[in-house]
Amino acid sequence: MQRDITKKALERSTYERPAFFYSSAREGMLDLLRNVLQPGRAVALPAFIGWSPNEGSGVFDPVEESGVGRRFYDLNSDLTVDLASLGQTLAAGDVGVLVVIHYFGRTDPAWQEVRRLASEHDVFLVEDLAHGWFSALGRGASGTYGEAQLYSLHKMLPLADGGMVTYRSPGLVSGQASTEHALPGRMLSYDTEAISAHRRLVFERTGTALAELARDDDRFALMWPDMGDDVPQTLPVRITGADRDHVYRYMNEHGVGMVSLYHTLIPQLPAGFDEVRSISRQIINFPVHQDVDPDRVDGIVALFREALDAATTASSPSSDATAERHA
């Protein structure tokens, strides 16, 4: 017998995606592992995981603190998942949770295959969207294919802290509990559509200007030309023909807040993974956030060329000889 059609929605579980709020994403990840991961099972992580003396590793620290086993899978040169490596990692049979990172807000183009592998091996799939809050609000696949989604909101909004974990269905929730009950109100105080549009505009203008510069300059390479349906956290570039650290310092000293995300990998990463190690030595990230004036993009890219020139000169043999003479 059919139920009566009610005047308003009453079924709480219809399209419900439980959300929990924390002081940080790492706190949320620790809560997830304690309630989701079965005893004796390991966590599979991508090899490109950074560490800093000030913040540690938001990705790895909760895994370390939980005391569970960890496995690492490789990535390609554009930070997409190496599907063969992932398949081998999951085939070992001891992985209970798989973490896929949406680096700098970008969804892996092979996300459907990642989802298939997770299902095939009965693994709980976590989308690490620390950089992808705005991407998950869009129309793409970001935030739709995992059992859980992890967000670091202070990296996307002007907040001092804030993390969130969402679950695909209420059946995935057991003992998880929020610790920051005021966070939803702070999140809802911002126009996310306007911020997303602004970030995409700055990314597109910066990418276009960098692509034009790259026609005559082979000292750097864009990691990907566009974001598809996603919204960028930053715009990543690999410095291939100059000293990355010198470029980083030059840009920041001249008023452009560059970052170099994952410039130092976690020391627990096993030997090998040569490509991600190379990326960590070369990567630098342009700001594209909502405070960046799109009309300043040309000036930022012009300064970047100056930084490349300065870094190239500083690392040249004649420069080294001059430095020795003045030592």
3D architecture notes:
The protein is an alpha/beta fold and 327 residues long. It folds into 2 domains: 19-187, Type I PLP-dependent aspartate aminotransferase-like (Major domain) (Aspartate Aminotransferase, domain 2); 193-318, Aspartate Aminotransferase, domain 1 (Alpha-Beta Complex). The protein is 35% helix and 15% strand. It contains 11 helices and 10 strands. The strands form 2 sheets. A 7-stranded mixed β-sheet has the order 1-7-6-5-4-2-3, sandwiched between helices. Strands 8-9-10 form a 3-stranded antiparallel β-sheet. Helix 1 crosses helix 2, helix 7 (192-214) crosses helix 10 and helix 8 (244-253) packs across helix 10. The radius of gyration is 22 Å and the shape is globular. The chain starts with 18 loop residues before the first strand and ends with a helix. Residues 318-327 have low confidence and may be disordered.
Q: Which descriptors apply to this entry?
A:
alpha/beta, single chain, 10 strands, disordered C terminus, 7-stranded mixed beta sheet, 3-stranded antiparallel beta sheet, about 325 residues, Aspartate Aminotransferase, domain 2, Aspartate Aminotransferase, domain 1, 11 helices, about 35% helix
